[in-house]
Amino acid sequence: MKKAGLFITALSVLTSMATGSAYANENKQYHAGSVQPQTSTSPITVPLVQAPYRTNLAYSVGVDAYIYGYTLVEMARTMQQFTEKTPLNTFHHDKLLADASFKDFVKPNNDTLYSTAWLDLSKGPQVLSYPTIARYFTLQMMDAYSNSFKYIGGSNLDDYKGGKVVIVGPNWEGKLPGNVEVIRAPTDMLWILGRTFVNGEKDLPNVYNIQTGYTLAPLDVNQKPGAIDLPKIESADFGDPSKFYPLLAQLMKLNPPPQRDEAFLSKLEFIRLDYQAGTFHANNDPVVWEGLTKAVKDAKEIIKNSISILQRPNNGNWRVNNERVGIYDTYYLNRAMVAMHGIGANTPEEAVYASTRVDDGGTPLVGQKKYVIHFEKEQIPPTKSFWSLSLYNFENHFIDNELDRYSIGDRTEGLKYNEDGSLDIFIQSTPPKGKETNWLPSPSSTTAPNFSLVVRIYTPDEPLQKKNTFVIPAIKVVNE
């Protein structure tokens, strides 16, 4: 019954997202009658006969608003974590590949060094420079809603020659140099997530040299420093309607939503969320508040448990991200799921992701078992750059292991192929005798499920980007 209820709720959420104008019209009736917009801290008087209906309506709108706004709040929380160590409009360059201690965001890769910058464009444009680079790299630009609106590098081959661009905010007007590319960001809050390929620990100094060429500078030296004024966002705020909805209102004022969201935005009036003013006033309406309290709890579960919508099946037990990743349009649930399970994901043109938590029999992966994934020669992931296989714990972070190996792939030093060109990768908690070069360590815990696997294919061949033409081999138990 619980699963059925969640399914019905999810369907109602998706349906209601398309009927925002109806809610807005009904809400005007409340304002014309005995229910008035809240302009003070005094309680709102509501006829009792309306209470059940209004609670249910507040619940429905509250679920939609939570799903819509989850990514925006999570992006801001990630920004705040970053700016505790690095100012806005400044690059931070990682110097070590992500390992078990990396907790900045979920499902990091272990193939590249990250170069990260959060921008505040409200004070003026920023000039981004990058050097000539003879290896895979990307500078992914995401707006406040996590849409990847621009890439430098990756599949854009001309960018490897180096260059300079001016990034301006959505409403900025002024004079710009005539010989520089201009990128207009959809929001003033912007995340640049850079990735530069590293071929193992010995290659790190070479990447450091490249990172020094990633720079940001104000277009006008007299520009004020970046500043995004928000209260401290904690993980617990995502489960507290008195914290989440006010944060959402403030963030929507700072980062006005696109016009395409107008149908959804018309519903927010009913739960007293004014995104244009950045205010939220439902706290003193107990009938609405009852619906919102339940909405936060259920919406969070909907996001957590709807991951299958985001992925298409591949070989029964692998799931590959569909084309609605990286740029989300009005697919708000997709956007929220990525923010929860792997924020900052690339578009399919730049990387294809496949994941699994089960073996070929559908049994959850556990540490006490030994597994192998066998790639026939024609099953080696098709890519213009490289591919890797990574292992994560149930919280989507790397797992500490004696080899300090968190991913394995075609660039792994010493990787051994079979005589016929096929490849075996062994996944277990103890070293496979004589096959250590092809070993991806798993945890020793026996509690199921306790780890997942992710295949990343960088700049994949075109047929793989939007079609399910590539089959990833199943994970099989090794019988000894």
Blueprint (SSEs and pairs):
Elements: H1 2-16, H2 20-32, H3 51-83, E1 92-93, E2 112-120, E3 126-130, E4 137-143, E5 148-153, E6 163-168, E7 181-184, E8 189-197, H4 204-211, E9 215-218, H5 241-254, H6 262-265, E10 273-274, E11 279-280, H7 286-305, H8 307-310, E12 311-314, E13 318-321, H9 332-342, E14 351-356, E15 371-375, E16 387-392, E17 407-409, E18 423-428, E19 439-441, E20 452-458, H10 462-466, E21 475-477
Parallel strand pairs: 6-7, 18-19
Antiparallel strand pairs: 1-2, 2-8, 3-6, 3-9, 4-5, 4-8, 10-11, 12-13, 13-14, 14-20, 15-18, 15-21, 16-17, 16-20
Helix pairs in contact: 1-3, 3-5, 3-7, 3-9
| Overall average pLDDT | 86
Integer tally of domains:
3
Q: What is the CATH architecture term of the largest domain? A: Sandwich
CATH topology of the largest domain: Jelly Rolls
CATH superfamily of the largest domain, by name, is Domain of unknown function DUF1214, C-terminal domain
- Taken as a percent bin, the fraction of beta residues is 15-25%
How are the strands of the largest sheet arranged? 12-13-14-20-16-17
Summarize the main sheet.
Answer: 6 strands, antiparallel
Radius of gyration, whole Å: 24 Å
Q: What is the SS-derived class?
A: alpha+beta
Q: Which stretches are poorly predicted, pLDDT < 50 over at least 5 residues?
A: 1-49
Summed up, the helix count is 10
Q: What is the share of helical residues? A: 25-40%
Number of strands: 21
CATH class of the largest domain: Mainly Beta
End-to-end Cα distance = 41 Å
Assign an overall shape.
Answer: globular
Walkthrough of the structure:
- The chain folds into three domains: 148 residues, no CATH class; 130 residues, Domain of unknown function DUF1254 (Immunoglobulin-like), CATH 2.60.40; 171 residues, Sandwich (Jelly Rolls), CATH 2.60.120.
- Helix content is 26%, strand content 21%.
- The strands form five sheets. It has a six-stranded antiparallel sheet with strand order 12-13-14-20-16-17.
- A hairpin with a 3-residue loop joins strand 12 and strand 13.
- The two termini are 41 Å apart.
